[in-house]
Each structure stands twice: as structure tokens, then as C-alpha cells.
Amino acid sequence: MADFYQNGIVTTLHNLSERPIDELENELLTFSQKRPMGLILPSLFSELEGTALTHIVDELCDVPYLSQIVIGLDRANLEQYKHALGFFSRLPQHHRILWNDGPRLKALDAELETLGLAPKELGKGRNVWYCMGYVLASNKAESVALHDCDILTYERSLLAKLIYPVANPQFNYEFCKGFYARVADGKINGRVSRLLVTPLLRALKKVLGPSAYLDYMDSFRYPLAGEFSFRKDVLNDIRIPSDWGLEIGVLSEMHRNYSPNRLCQADIAQNYDHKHQDLSAHDDQGGLSKMSIDITKSLLRKLATQGQTFSMESFRTLKATYYRIALDFVEAYHNDAIINGLDLDIHSEEKAVELFAQNIMKAGENFLVNPMETPFMPCWNRVVSAMPDVLEKLKEAVEADFNEFQSS
To answer: Which of UniProt's keywords are assigned here (predicted)?
Structure first.
């Protein structure tokens, strides 16, 4: 059972009573009459071949309150897109698949590229960005949740708890971030959040001094969770990164656009496990190594927009401060593991900390060398301003793919 402590400046909605899922879903069904609800599922085709997404779809078939499910499909050829149409066909809710590698959506992407508005980097961020555009284009949902497709421990209660704060008409939240304990197979997981993000935020506060933004970011119990929900109006002017800084970028945008009392975080699962990335200690272009660099750059870019200046000297100080704080965290998590009968390998934890410390310097060097880098995808308001019919074109392309291939 969770505690009831309110930490930081963002409201925490706890899991205090293990409320029956039927009660939650009945309330959500009532809310849906005023606030129709949707779900975004960013997916690789390879995830259709695993067990996690099959189980997720099985669970979603029993969800009564969703008006819409939008699936973003990456890395799929025509036969794989057709397979996806059959795979998701058992969903009783209205659903559409964005075939991101199909000729129609690639043609739209090329049009946007001529205007300098297309996402520059392939990946989850680009997938989510187009799905958000389709939600705006289809106008079927007022409250929208997003979660990953590789959750091995998925239960439909996760979705109910995630979307409830932005679906309840009596609440004024525009955005909800999910959190959970990353414990599975007798181990504490979530290394990047535990050993990079939180220690780095604490180090930045120590080196740079008081910061409302850093206090805000440090209020989130699991800032890298891939699960969040929002009101539809959030989508118009949010600018998100296309790299591994997606989750940090979304939180940063919500801080820029909304007062903290319009944001919350919710405990959405007692158990959570998904596929794990390799540390990639010898390849900073993959795995947790690339993730740590992208996340650090995302934080640095946000602080720079607030007038903070950086130099190699400040990055060396930041690295040293981070390293000491992170080692203290290793000890804290080791003791937490012991009292709970879990395993935690101090050697591998400290190897991760050493890698993340090196990557803080790499991120800093990249930040200084590429001051004109624009990693954010444009907000949809700007895209519509440049191409007024873009949402109609997006919707037409998705519908045309669906109508042409659904029975093949």
C-alpha cells in the first residue's frame, strides 16, 4: 500500500485502497458522456510479435469507456501493416492505425519537410507526434492517455488510474504523469531514473542554486515513465523532442504552459515490468548510454531557455557533484533492496553511475558545440498555421490506408 505523502509542488494521487476496477470503470463510463476518452499506443511492428502487446489488447477489449484508440505503427512494410490491421481488429472501440512507413503518410511527411516542419529523427517521439495530430484531426476524444506497448505486467486498471485525473469533470488537471515501482524478478529496475535523473536534478540544484523548474522536475516520482494522460487542448501548443528526451521534454513543456496546480501524478500500478535496454557502455549511440546523453541534453536545453549559462568548467563541477550524490543513492537503494529481500548488485550500479557521469560531460560538450540544434518537433498550432489543411490530409491518409487494406 502506498503512503499519502505529498512531495514537491505537483499533486500526487496515491493508490490507498486498491479500489475495484469495476467501480473505477463505471465512473469513467459516466465521465465519458461529457469527456470522451481516447488512448494512444506508439508501437513498433516487432511488438506485435511479442507477448506483451497481445495481452494489452486482450485487456483493452474489456475497457468500456474509450471512444477511440490510435495506434502509431513504426517499422512496418505493407504485409506487416495488413497483419497489424488483423491484429487490432478485435478491439471493439473505434481504432485506427497510423502506418508511418506507408506511402501516404510518407508523402505528407515530405510535404512538411519542404516547409521545415517534419520531425527530423525517427523514433517514439515522431510516432507520438503524428498520433497527437491524428487525435486533433479526428476530434473523437477530449481526454487522452498514452502508454507503451511493451508492458509485460499490464492490467486495464493501469489505464483507468492513468486517465481518471483528466477525465473527471470535477478535477481541473490538464495533465497526469503515471508512476509505479520498477521491481520485477526480485530486482529493483529503472536505473536511468534512479541513478541518473534524480541525482542529476539534485546536483543541478546544488551547482546552479534555487530553481523553480528543478524543484518541479524533482517532484515527479518517476519522471521517465512512458505513461501519461492529458486534455486534448494540451496538444495544440506542446513541443516535444524526438529523441530519448521525450518524457523529460513533455514534463518541461507542461511546466512552461501550465501552473503546477493543473498537473498531477498518479500511482497506476503495483507491478510494472517491460523490455529492458542494454547499458551499452561501449556505444553511446544506443541503449541506456544514448538515453542518458539525450536526457541530460534535454535538461540543459530547458535550463538554457531560462537564462542559465554553461561552460566546460561548470560541466566538470556538475559531473563531480552528480557522481558523489549518485554513489550515495546506490547505497540507499542497496539498503532498500536488502530490507525488502531483493537483489541489487552494487558493482553494476556503480558501473552505470560511472557511465552516466562520463555521458554528462559528453552531453555538455554536444550542447556547447551545437548551440543552434533544434531537437524539438514544432507544435501543431504552428504546423496548421503553415499548412491549414494538414490535419485533414493526415486523417484522410489514415482512413485511405484503412479502407484500402482492411479486408485484404
So the answer is: Transferase
